[in-house]
Amino acid sequence: MGDDMRSQLGSVTIIVLMLAASAANAQEGAEVRQDADGIPFLLDYPDLDDPDGEVVLENEHVVVQRFIVAPGEWEGIHTHPGNQVYVHVVGGVWSGRAGGESTYDDSLSEDGSVGWMERIPLSQGHESGNTGDTPIDLIWVTLKGKDPIRPDVEVERLVYPEIPMELLVDNDRVIVQRVQVEPGQWEGIHSHPGYQVFIHIKGGTWAGKMGGMLSPTTNTRADGHVGWMDAIDLSEEHESGNVGDTTIDLVWVTLK
Length: 256
Hints:
Elements: E1 6-9, E2 12-15, H1 22-27, E3 54-58, E4 62-69, E5 84-90, E6 92-98, E7 101-109, E8 114-117, E9 126-130, E10 136-143, E11 166-170, E12 174-181, E13 196-202, E14 204-210, E15 213-221, E16 226-229, E17 238-242, E18 248-255
Antiparallel strand pairs: 1-2, 3-4, 4-10, 5-8, 5-10, 6-7, 6-9, 11-12, 12-18, 13-16, 13-18, 14-15, 14-17
């Protein structure tokens, strides 16, 4: 586990989880806001107080938005560009409509629940609403390309040798996995395939190691914190650990 930013400890590069340089990666490619057919990548929920939500990460491959849907709020009729992963930082009770008719009622989405969304045109009159009594905190990861970014590569699932991971989605575009890291746990030495978005369902305090050497710094991440991960080779002997006192709950979205 870690971010694409690295700090130096002597002659050894220590990769520490999710440092501040991820903000620079979030802005790379930010000017690309629609696909080749002119379909916007950015979701717009017209009936929310904040229709565009917050863009928390964007580069040439993805745009990531975060929305808070208050109790009783409906999104308003909108499109979906497709090729999207949704992640509930805080879940809640949803109901849905299409063309003004109910499609489902009072469906509970748990904290950390994840799904895949195909394209929905505006003509369907699609919208969802929070019909529970607590706010829903929702993150959308939208892929900008129609096709896999590395079609000739067999992208492997992320493996933490010391901690089991739960597979949530595996299709022709993404692999989505979830892991809980308990206080005092370390992931074990592992590689990263790169082109990855990480999302904290529950944040916490991380430390990093490289070649068995402990980084002199730690990083505390809030619930809902998002970042981008480039590739890390196994030879770098990278791992991170939870040095806080609460469980870290993390979702990885690996692009194919």
